[in-house]
Design brief:
heterodimer, A: alpha/beta, Transcription Regulator spoIIAA, 5-stranded mixed sheet, 4 helices, 47% helix, 18% strand, globular, B: alpha/beta, Globin-like, 2 domains, 13 helices, 5 strands, elongated
Amino acid sequence: MPVPILKQGDILIASIQAALSDQDLVRLQEELSERVGRSRARGVVIDLSALDVLDSFATRTMRNIAYTTRLRGAETVVVGIQPEVAFAMVQLGLTLEGVATALDLEEGCAMLRRETKSS
Amino acid sequence: MAESNRASTRAPLPHELEINERDVARRKEFLEFREEDAATLRKLNDVAQKYADPVIEDLYRHFLSHEETQAFFRDPHVLERVKRLQKEYFLRLTQGDYGADYVANRLRIGTVHERINLAPKWYLGAYNFYLRAVAKWLQETFAKKPEDAFAAFLSLMKLVFLDIGLAMDTYIFARDSTMRKQQEAIRELSTPVLQIRERLLLLPIIGVIDSQRARLITGGLLEAIRANRAKVVVMDVTGVATIDSKVANHLLQTVMAARLMGATVIVSGLSPEVAQALVALGIDLTKLNTVGDLQGGIEQAERILGYRVVQTGTEPGSSQLPA
């Protein structure tokens, strides 16, 4: 299932609605790094609030997306990780090192705006 | 052994102790208690019948002559009853059936001893008395064949050690359940998560942290972060007396999980002893945002959230010159 990517000002929003296969994740990574350049976005928000599990591959992909988009000139914020998911992740040692996180979409967008304004 | 096991499988073993038939079989194997031993003991049954009464009488005379054990047998009715039960047990040692039923009986007796507070030292002392008494009558009975007496004694010793092992487990189990109850009581003094400013939570941790409590604390904090839309959490550990690597790990996990939800955690109140211990243990807490005390923690949190606390007017208590 492809993930819809919305554009709001200079922020791209990828809202993941259902569990994704590894292939879907790879496609999301490719698409985001491409769209960041095309739409001259300054920030990316990936909303995971609908997910009730996040495995090591998904975690790694999130990190890859963050690093890739940073190289392409946009900061990525991962938002909406649920308490249970966060707890399970730390137990598995998945900590999303080096990736910005925020409570929800609203927070994530606010964070990106603050950052793009200050830079 | 196998036969007697099968014959008495109907009597269920106490479940809460997790002693099952396999476990009993392993114990017997370890003690090298075999079918021959059971047979040897069975042969002693006639002799045991003969000596039972005097041995029991001696044993209780011994009990009554010591003040610590005397207390358990003040009531003559009780004394009669326990003597009867003791005799049953004594004879049972040589009845050749050491299956599940036997084990269950031993466990029950152990539990009773724990409940009436008969300390293991007296219990073990009684076994010592038993073995000495039995050694004496084996010597008498097998006066012409001392090697038989010795073999019988060794078999009996294996069985006695099996019994002691079971009884010790019931003692330990009873102590453990007391401890479990206390731990539950501590856990019920749950860790509150308090909102002290818009989007700022305070998590005061007091007492001992074990894995289960750490899980509860983390779970509670994460839920509160979502419910209060918190951005900063001050975790105050002034009330945590000792932090070892395990606890430090738990705290780190809590901090990481909060971060995944977009919240920053500030840890405050690490005492000098705790700080030194952590460094000595080589635990890497560089990922933690630590501040000396709770006040400093809250001040830093306010800075992150963009609050500025301004003192208005004069303090009510301070004596200032009138303007």
